[in-house]
Amino acid sequence: MKAIILAAGRGTRLSPYTQYIPKCLLDIGGVSILELQMNHIRDCGISEVVIVVGFGFERVENFLRSYDSLGMKIKTLYNPFYQTTNSLISLWIARGEMDEDIVVMNGDDVFEIDVLDKLLSIRNEKICLPVKIKNIYEEEDMKVKLDGERILDIRKTITKNISAESVGLRVFRDNGVEIIKKAIEEEMRTPGAESKWYISSIQRLIGKGYKIKAYDIADLFWMDVDYPGDLFNVRSESERFLNISQPRRLLKVVDSN
Question: How would you classify the pairing of strands 109-111 and 222-224?
Answer without folding.
Answer: antiparallel
